Amino acid sequence: MMNSQSLRTLEYEQIKEDLARYAVSYAGKEHISNLQPMTYLTSIHRAMEETAEAKELLEKGSSIPLPSLEGIEWIMSLMGTGYLYNEQDFTAVGTFLNSCTQLRKYMASKEQTAPRIGAYASSLLELSHVKDEITRCIRFGSIDDGASKGLEKVRKRLNVAKERLHKKIEGVMSRHQSILQENIYSMRNGRYVIPVKREYHKQVKGSVLDQSTSGQTVFIEPDEVAALQGELDLLLADEAREEAIILGRLTDLVEQEGVSLRLNIEVTGTYDFIFAKAKYARTLGATAVKLNERGFMRMIGGRHPMLQGMIPISLEFGKGYKSLIVTGPNTGGKTVVLKTLGILTLMAQSGMLIPVEEGSEFTVFSDVMSVIGDGQSLTQSLSTFSAQMKSIEEMLRGAGKGVLLLIDELAAGTDPGEGIALSTALLEELSRRGANIIVTTHFNELKAFAAGTPGFQNARMEFDKDTLQPLYRLTIGEAGESYALQIAEKLGIDLSVIERSKQIVKEQRVEQGYRDAHMQRQQLKVQRDPTDIGIDVEVQADHVDEKEQDGKALPQSFEIGDAVYVSSLGRTGIVFEKRNSLGMVGVMIQKQKMSINHKRLKPYISKDELYPDDYDFDIIFESKENRKKKKLMQRKYVEGLSIVYDGDNS
Q1: Is 265 in the same domain as 380?
Q2: pLDDT tens column, 237-261
Q3: Beta 436-440 vs 403-407: how paired, if at all?
Q4: Number of domains the chain is built from
Q5: 393 within a domain of the structure (yes/no)
Q6: Would you state the pLDDT for residue 398?
Q7: Same domain, 622 and 555
Q8: What's the rounded Cα separation, in Å, for the pair 400 and 107?
Q9: Per-residue pLDDT tens for 23-81?
Q10: For 387-400, what is the mean pLDDT?
Q11: Whole-model pTM?
């Protein structure tokens, strides 16, 4: 049984609803309602080939004589309850059996084209004795006179009695024509009456059975007609008794074949189900795919059934690597990759044809688990991150060989540093358990993880750098970029904000580069002398730290606002206080102010590159409270107002 939450997330039930629209019978719709992805390769393969055969028949223009089963569900539900079926019920049974005969003959004629589905027709039972008896007894929805000798005899007598009665009532009307409201007789409660004007009704001997709404007409049964009416009533009772005998006999006949009828319903329901899948496949332009149990997946030109006009997606895994880390811009369609792969996998394992191109090959998964979007957080009042972690915990329990895991924006919505660490650890563990993982992410660090971790491969959603439009094309083996700043600029974000963002990105990248170099030197130092880990980093500094400009070393003077690299800490900071007589320079690193010997500082980026000429450095170096105090002091003297600085850390 596949993970139920993931089936909902991937909209499997919606696919089943769309499929059900192509079924014509309740039995076919019931098959669709019970449809679930299978995990046994032979069963999946057989179901897919059956659907492909049905699609081929439809494409050749064949009209399939599928029984609608109208009224049959009602009949089967009352079987064995003592219910006496009526003429309409038997008409439905007769129509159904005729359709079974037609379907059997049709499939026999298609044995060469569709041998797999053709085999089901041999199980259809014609039940000729039932069909013939219903046809003999029921004509045009009524019991035929010849259904029994008793019925035939009583109906002849009934016709004679009716004719006598009609002549009698016509004679009465002729005599009283002047007092009739209109020259026509009718029936009230099964008895013949004539319409007499109210003021003359006492002139007609008989019983008043009704009157008009206005009261101007009374309906009278003449006494001389009443005697014949009594005779007619007795004959009608005889007719009803004979009809009941016939209906009872037919009811017994149908109930004796209840098992056979159920078998026929099951077979025709199966055909309805298969051809519904074939009709749905034609609307999608879907086809059969190769299947394997080796873990190899190749989806070429896959299209989501519910996304009209989407650009087809291709991906592959299972040879050399089993998992993909998909990167790219927000609007680039990364989530569509997960949903498309997920739903097409579920459809294929349900024996359905899927919208992919020739050459595609799908592997059979024992389970498909997905964490896409934050739908759970809406119902459980959890944050997006909490909801995702709750689902990931379930993934950790279910992960194993042959399980497909689809994760959208892993560890999003939390501290980036912790998110990256958590993502890495989770991916390592899920992969260790043998699962196939397709994960989308914005974390650049996971690109490096994918590139350097066995079993993983990068994939990127292509993006047009000139138009900044997503191409919705997945390229495996390369990591994508987010293009966040380009998109923001195109959407009208102030240019100064964009430029500052680019500068911050540059700072972060250079700082990371220094950190990496620092770590490399430490590792090299340990390799040389593992016992001497406390040696000053500056001693090991090499040309990596040296910044040069126009071939000349930069002067070792630092201005307020300059970005510098602190070699002893392996960090970058901003100068907030110039070098003093002792050679100490004030440097702020992540809002912490320190005094550091100028020899331990390397020029990084000058203030001229970082800030405009009139930039107020108090914004960086002073707290919001102190900035307010300074402004107040500049305007006027305030008794007791002071600014206190903590001692510098050196």
Answers
A1: no
A2: 999 999 999 999 999 999 999 999 9
A3: parallel
A4: 4
A5: yes
A6: 86
A7: yes
A8: 43
A9: 999 999 999 999 999 999 999 999 999 999 999 999 988 788 998 899 999 999 999 99
A10: 83
A11: 0.69
Residue numbers of the domain that contains 158: 148-233
* CATH number for the domain harbouring residue 17: 1.10.1420.10
Amino acid of residue 346: L
Kindly indicate the confidence band of residue 646, based on its pLDDT and cuts at 50, 70 and 90: low
**Three-state SS at 405:** strand
Indicate the average pLDDT of the chain: 82
- Burial (0-12, 13-18, 19+ Cβ within 10 Å), 189: exposed
Is 160 found in the same domain as 70? no
Nearest Cα residue to 368 out of 388, 393, 395: 395
| Contact indicator for 196, 179 with CB cutoff of 8 Å | yes
549 CB-contact burial (10 Å; exposed 0-12 / middle 13-18 / buried 19+): exposed
Pick the closest to residue 571 from 592, 547, 550, 557 (CA basis).
Answer: 592
504 inside domain: no
CA 226 to mean position of chain CA atoms: 71
Domain presence at residue 250: no
- Give domain status of residue 410, yes or no: yes
Give the model's pLDDT for residue 157. Answer: 95
Q: Which of 19, 22, 20, 26 is nearest to 96 (CA)?
A: 26
Residues 614 and 482 grouped into a single domain: no
Q: How far is the C-alpha of 537 from the C-alpha of 525, rounded, in Å?
A: 9
Does residue 384 sit in the same domain as residue 530?
Answer: no
Q: Say if residue 309 is in the same domain as residue 197.
A: no
Same domain assignment for residues 267 and 355: no
Tokens representing 238?
């005889």
| 384 vs 177: CA distance, rounded Å | 88
Same domain, 265 and 208: no
Q: Which residue has the tokens 């500094």?
A: 541
Residue 312 DSSP label: P
Nearest CA-CA partner of 536 in 517, 516, 522, 556:
522
